[in-house]
Amino acid sequence: MSLVAQEAAAAPGIEGYLVTYGPLVLMFVVLYFLLIRPQQKRQKTRSMMLNNLKKGDKVVTIGGLHGTILEITDDTIILRVNDVTKLTFERSSINAVSSVSVEEKK
């Protein structure tokens, strides 16, 4: 067999793998950049927000309750909803910080 015939016989095998697995690899790369990477960025931003919570911050819980942080521990937060009502929440139930504490602004 000539060298050209051997190369022609070997080439379809390699091209077969590219045709078979190329779309799968391409699909994984597209899904990574469209779904996985943005989710990781959102998770990182949320964990930074939860770690930076301070006493006096005005926050909104996942359920939509607005309050001011009175006490904060590693796992729980006590919110003042109005002048009389104090509620205890898990730290992970905080959805967003609506405004920063007065002490930090000074």
From TrEMBL:
Give the transmembrane ranges.
16-36
Quote any Pfam family the record assigns: YajC
Q: Which domain of life is it from?
A: Bacteria
Is Glycoprotein set as a keyword in this record? no
Q: What is its main location?
A: membrane
Membrane topology category: Single-pass membrane protein
Alphabetized UniProt keyword annotations: Cell membrane, Membrane, Protein transport, Translocation, Transmembrane, Transmembrane helix, Transport
Cellular localisation = Cell membrane
Which family does the record claim for this protein? Belongs to the YajC family.
Q: What is this protein called?
A: Preprotein translocase subunit YajC
Organism lineage string = Bacteria, Bacillati, Bacillota, Bacilli, Bacillales
Q: Which gene encodes it?
A: yajC
